[in-house]
Inverse folding.
């Protein structure tokens, strides 16, 4: 059995939704994942980088497109890892990694900061919940309806 893995990386381009000749939707995206280390001066050095193609089919493809993903977004993609061989334009053999049967989630990014540990904009306040009757009703054992 092939391994199930999770890729944590950034999209190299906007996801693309296509349809097969039989009408099945397929969402394709490419995720770049890298290993890096922090240097003494606070900057990061990229050590190694891989690119993984992600193919999402049918209802999952359409649901993934509704996430509104764009180039540069950080995503987590979990699925089965395959190695695919293909012919290059010059006739040589090439290999690529492909994640099949994945689930994809967008990773929220924190607000940009001007100072380490301090957001440049204040966090948004939550809207108070709409009054449902439960929070304003007198304390009794009866529901407020």
């Amino acid at each position: 059995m092939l391994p199930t893995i999770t890729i944590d990386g950034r999209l190299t381009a906007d996801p693309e939704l296509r349809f097969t000749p039989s009408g099945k939707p397929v969402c394709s995206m490419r995720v770049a994942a890298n290993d890096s280390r922090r240097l003494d001066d606070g900057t990061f050095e990229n050590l190694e980088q891989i690119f993984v193609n992600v193919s999402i089919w049918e209802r999952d493809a359409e649901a993934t497109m509704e996430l509104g993903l764009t180039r540069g977004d950080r995503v987590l993609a979990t699925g089965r890892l395959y190695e695919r061989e293909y012919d290059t334009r010059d006739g040589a053999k090439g290999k690529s990694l492909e994640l099949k049967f994945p689930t994809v989630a967008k990773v929220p990014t924190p607000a940009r900061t001007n100072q380490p540990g301090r957001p440049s904009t204040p966090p948004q306040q939550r809207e108070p919940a709409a009054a449902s009757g439960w929070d304003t009703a007198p304390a009794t054992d009866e529901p407020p309806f």
